[in-house]
Amino acid sequence: VEDSPDSLTFLSRSDSSTSQEKPPTIEIDQFILDGGSFIYHTADQDSIRAELLDFDLSISGIRIDSTSRTKPHFIDFESITTSTGNFQYAFKSGLYVIESHQTRYSTAENIATLDSLKLIPQYPKYEFAQQVGHQQDRISLSVAQLQLQDPDIEKLKAGQVVARKFVIDKADLDVFHSKMVPDGPETIKTFP
């Protein structure tokens, strides 16, 4: 019963097999995760660094090549659709929090949408520069909806937001610069 469907030993079949049959592939029509939550604490467990609530994930047409020698095994899928309720991320510096009330992404459409996106300073106007220790712009941003068309997911993993097209709906930007603290380090601002 070595190759029976209820046995996992067929996953470790050796290359010395004389059979010319097609390698076993695991196929899953759809995987759904509904209503998940994710909370990431700081190393000292004192505060929450990121929070993702009401997380839904749907992956369709999953195929896993179980004979692949690569670890992890090769996984292919037709589409991924994900959405979240509230999302919040606190920057490591402690100066800002970014939040969105709803996010959606679909590989079929290749569009990412963030609703009620906000960049929120964590200190009042005059205390912000004192926390930094030198002059620095304090930015408060609110966007009703941000849509990224054809986002580059690999660059996003590297901390860069790159997309073919950005659509910004109803943005409100407030920049405050306090001169009540010393100048900051000399920086050269470049434009693309």
Considering the chains and any ligands shown, give keywords for the structure.
elongated, 2 helices, 192 residues, six-stranded antiparallel β-barrel, mainly beta, single chain, disordered N terminus
State the strand order across the main sheet.
2-4-7-8-6-5
What is the count of DSSP helices, taking H or I runs of 4+ residues?
Answer: 2
Q: Main beta sheet, described?
A: 6 strands, antiparallel, barrel
CA gyration radius, whole angstroms: 24 Å
Q: Give helix and strand order, one letter per element, not per position.
A: EEEEEEEEHEHE
Structural class: mainly beta
Shape: elongated
What percentage of residues falls in helices of 4 or more residues? under 10%
Indicate the low-confidence ranges by residue numbers.
1-19
The averaged pLDDT comes out at 80
Write down how many β-strands occur, each being a DSSP E stretch of 2 or more residues. Answer: 10
Distance between the termini: 64 Å
* Estimated share of beta-strand residues: over 45%
Structural description of this entry:
The chain is mostly beta strands. It has helices at 125-132, 153-157, and strands at 25-41, 48-65, 75-76, 79-84, 87-90, 96-100, 102-106, 111-121, 138-151, 163-176. It has a 6-stranded antiparallel β-barrel with strand order 2-4-7-8-6-5. A hairpin with a 6-residue loop joins β1 (25-41) and β2. The radius of gyration is 24 Å and the shape is elongated. It starts with 24 loop residues before the first strand and ends in a 16-residue tail after the last strand.
